[in-house]
Amino acid sequence: MITAATTWFGTEETNDLPSAAMAPAELPLAPGLARALPRARPALIGPGPALAEALETGEALDAPRLADLLAPWTAHLAALAETGAAQVQIHEPLLGTGLSKPLADALKPAYAALAAAGPAILLSGAEGAPGPDLWTALSLPVAGLHLDLVTEPGQLRDALDSGVDMIFSLGLIDGQAEDRADLAAAARWARVAMRRHGAARIEVTNARPLRAATEDPERPWIACRAKKEEEIALAALIAAEGEAAWQAALAENACARALRDHAALPRLAGAAAARV
């Protein structure tokens, strides 16, 4: 049974369904913002763990055995293609954990088979991914790669320098952070990537799954799930359209973050006094 991711990048939640649509917004966004969110895609957990298990038992992953192991994935991807799906996200849990050479070598023919079977693949991995496995990921025949730039910001330069012709999904908004994101900083990162790699090949999204927080009117610096989705859309739009077009959003974001810093002052002062 192929398991399916039920949230965005870096998810730890899976279920027994063969696939699950990745809806980017459960709550309505302000008019004009939804257009900047990444498109919804079917999402599957990748074959990496199955390949690793086979290698650990000493199996030789020759072409017939590899085809046999991948049969559930290739069949499902073919079915998705028949429904008209243009893209699919494959979440590879071991990507970013430091792949062994045998497993890294096995992933290349495996993803060649998956790419030939169905829709274009956008690949994601563990927290920080692809991290130490960046060059392996860039060598795979996939249409796109998700980069966790909250945990591993340095990998953006290497990805852009690689010259690889694929979509880069930039995880710039920390989905688990309680505080509001720095929109201006996120937009600057995205703008650099768009300038170097082409806006059509850059997506802005979250790193780590979106937390299920609720809005707290007394603490406006707290970012609930809907606010995180809004931040993703705004960072993409500010990068693409310039800060002048989104001054009000940037001012609100800066104000909320300043309120957070102001609220933290008594706590920080108390902690400093306790150390004296």
Q: What does this 3D model show about the protein?
A:
The protein is of the alpha/beta class and 276 residues long. It has one domain: TIM Barrel. It is 43% helix and 14% strand. The chain is built from eight helices and nine strands. The protein has helices at residues 48-56, 63-82, 101-117, 134-139, 155-161, 183-197, 225-241, 247-275, and strands at 4-5, 14-15, 20-21, 42-45, 87-91, 120-124, 144-148, 167-174, 202-207. A seven-stranded mixed β-sheet has the order 3-4-5-6-7-8-9, with helices on one face. A two-stranded antiparallel sheet has the order 1-2. α1 (48-56) crosses α3 and α2 packs parallel to α3. Residues 1-28 and 264-276 have low confidence and may be disordered.
Break the fold down into its secondary structure elements and pairings.
Blueprint: E1 4-5, E2 14-15, E3 20-21, E4 42-45, H1 48-56, H2 63-82, E5 87-91, H3 101-117, E6 120-124, H4 134-139, E7 144-148, H5 155-161, E8 167-174, H6 183-197, E9 202-207, H7 225-241, H8 247-275
Parallel strand pairs: 4-5, 5-6, 6-7, 7-8, 8-9
Antiparallel strand pairs: 1-2, 3-4
